[in-house]
Amino acid sequence: MKVLGVIGSPRETGNTAAMVNAVCKGAASAGHETEVINLTSLNIHDCIACCACKTGKVEYCAIKDDMQKIYPKILEADCLVIGTPVYMGQMTGQMKNFFDRWYTFMDANYQIHHLPGKKYITVTASGAPAEVFQSVSDYLNHWLGSFFKMELVQNIVGGGLGPADAISNQPELLVRSENTGRSLK
After folding, report:
1. Which among 49, 179, 61, 38 has a CA at the least distance from the CA of 121?
2. CB-based burial label for 172 (10 Å; 0-12, 13-18, 19+)
3. DSSP E strand boundaries for the chain
4. In the chain, N or C terminus with fewer CB closer than 10 Å?
5. Helices (H), 30-169
6. Residue 128, pLDDT score
7. For residue 184, which of 38, 80, 70 has the smallest C-alpha distance?
8. What does DSSP assign to residue 95?
9. CA 158, CA 129: separation in Å to the nearest integer?
10. Strand order in 2-7's β-sheet?
11. Angle between helical axes of 15-29 and 171-182 (0-180°, round to 10)
């Protein structure tokens, strides 16, 4: 199984990154091939609603940026680990730009392609208590699961994680993350 971790945090070594990396570490220990990318180090532009992806004239998207390198990785992956901190009650801007560019995975009639049947794991981290921002996991589950027809493995929700290294005070989150990755089949 190929597992692709996507970190949408401006903190390259923060709490979200630690949990996504722990999921992938667990997956690797179970014999799966893993890769982790951090969106903050990439150049990903906004979707401009040009609909070129609906015409068949471009492979993925008309915008020539780092998403062109990520699209094949998404297609090759059997499981996506989507990780974002929760800022201002929602996913980060980096993650939203990345996610908006998934417009290419549906045709002009909103028929989904390439994603149905893939597995996914969500990882969210917030300075607030975990239950306060459960809505972000619900949002991701709606779009990834209900809309894109992917299969949920686990939502990992970390609360009380304000400072970049706060995860060190909640080692059980890292254990849970690693066990989630290890459990992939």
Report:
1. 179
2. exposed
3. 2-7, 33-38, 79-85, 119-125, 151-158
4. C
5. 67-76, 93-100, 134-140
6. 94
7. 80
8. H
9. 8
10. 33-38, 2-7, 79-85, 119-125, 151-158
11. 40
Strand partners, 6: 37, 82
Q: Which two structure tokens, joined as six digits, stand for 63? A: 């915008």
Note the Cα 21 to chain centre separation in Å: 12
The CA distance from 102 to 10, in Å, is: 21
Measured torsion, CA atoms of residues 113, 183, 35, 156, in degrees rounded to the nearest 10? 80
The DSSP 8-state label assigned to residue 104 in this structure reads G
Specify the residue for token string 């996991």.
137
Question: Whose structure tokens read 């949990």?
Answer: 19
**Tokens (6 digits) for 40:** 């903050």
The stretches of the chain forming alpha helices (DSSP H) are 15-29, 67-76, 93-100, 134-140, 171-182
Residue range 151-164: mean pLDDT, rounded:
96
Q: For the chain, which domains are there?
A: 2-11+23-182 (3.40.50.360)
Cα–Cα distance for residue pair 175/167, rounded to 1 Å: 11
Place of tokens 């906004």: 46
